[in-house]
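User: Batch of two.

Assistant: Item 1 of 2:
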Amino acid sequence: MEDSSYSKAKKAAVGIGKLLGDHKGGNVLVMDLSGLNAWTDFFVIATVTSSTHMQGLHKHIKEHAASEDLTILRRQRKTPSDEEWSLIDLGNIVVHLMTNKARLFYELERLWSDAQIVWRAEP
């Protein structure tokens, strides 16, 4: 049986994934990393089309987090001028908003290939 905090985190991660898909995030998926590291349970990854799209999705995540009583611990771009990849840390959930170029270069799905994909947006 899944523990309660894990179940809540999984539900929240899938909720964020669905939110991103509803707002045109591309190839959205939720990966379960809980058995692979000690610092987070889930990655939510979505492809963005521009820095404006990235900012809009961040705004939706911020509003969703507030309504679901989730705390954003930090938001950072991978480098200060980076328009390619933004990371949003919610503790047991880490959201990656990436351009297609960054997603192809960093290949997080391949890097964390042992993680189970628990939800994927319909193409």
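Item 2 of 2:
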Amino acid sequence: MGRETLEPDELVEREDFETGERRVLNRRIAVTVGVLAAVTSFANLEAERTVAQALLEKNAAVLAQSRASDEWAYRQAKSIKLHLQELTPGGPPDPAPLRADIAASEERARTAEQARDEADRRSTEAFEEHHHFARATNLLQIAIVLETVAAVLGFRGLWAGGIAVGSLGIARLGYAWFHFG
């Protein structure tokens, strides 16, 4: 059998050629997706930064709690030692240094508890900030999906919907930056 040769217009169906209107819509969608993707990357970066900050602050709170627990245990041990010495005949040689050590340990424990509370507060604030950036990222990603579907289907309504959802994401991002920044 012989090989047939096809003319260039026979290789492509007429429906495969984009109309001028469809080409313009796809260009607009491409620009919109590019802008949304760039803004999404900034929102995502901030979401990651704030969640990392929240975790670091929570770790600081746990470390401070550990220090406070150690100091309370040390204080308790010294206090038991003092009480045992007071019960022995003749009492402790000089209880003042031991009492001062107990008081200093108690002060260090309270200072560590304050540090724990402050780090815990900062962690909560950073996590709240993270939620705002994460929600902005989600809205922007949904907008990109709508834009992609609009490009495939050639539907202007989805393009407009993507712009609307993207605008909400950008507004949410702006709120997060200006409210927490």
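The first helix runs from residue 8 to 11.
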